[in-house]
Write a structure and sequence with these properties.
The chain has 248 residues and is an alpha+beta fold. The chain has two domains: 103 residues, no CATH class; 103 residues, Roll (Chitinase A, domain 3), CATH 3.10.50.40. A hairpin with a 2-residue loop joins β1 and β2. The chain starts with a strand and ends in a 13-residue tail after the last strand.
Amino acid sequence: MGISVNGVEITDRAIENEMPHHQSAENPLKQSVHELVLRTLLLQEADRLGIAGEDEDARVEALLAQEIRVPEADDAACEAYYRGRPELFTYGELVEARHILFQVTPTVPLEFLRTTAESVLEELQSNPERFAELATTYSNCPSGTVGGNLGQLSRGQTVPEFERFVFRMKEGEIGSRLLETRFGLHIVQVTRHIAGKLLPFESVRSQIADTLTRQSSQRAVHQYLQILVGRADIQGVTLEGAETLLVQ
């Protein structure tokens, strides 16, 4: 493929051997090439600085430990994170919800689907008592057979976009707009909202500190790799700002 890093070739064989590790990636070939380029850069930098280790992974870890300094999160940063994301530290919160799903399929034009869904939503805003009836008629979800009822939901049980939508709703509320998820268009009603209990800051402080330190470490590694990429002679591939960071 004609790929090299500071004159060192990334062979087709190396790429073939790397690809099985990235089969879940959107583009396994691209991911494999980026991983090899970045790893080669890091190992070259370890050579330059005389950093040894049992194997390549150990040398990379030693390099990052030497070159990157990540300060521990202080109380102020932890408290700000805690106050800004109370849903992450609340347990026992539940919603009972029902929905009408208009599933996107290759055989139904999206605009027709949207027009139908908006018409049903408009009807429900005027006549909410028809929800179960219209769910039975229109919903493409198996829950349509029980009036769209999804039962009790806790955080983490649904896709993120659905979760964010329903947990912000009030009890009895029908969403004022269609919710779009990977499954299609939804009309959603929360029939019950059970408030959870916020864990005290002291009990989650160390968890928050670990999260913030990990995030800072990831940003620092990203910036370090950007520096290495910026001053390297990389041929045959472009790393857009070293956006693929696979180094653990």
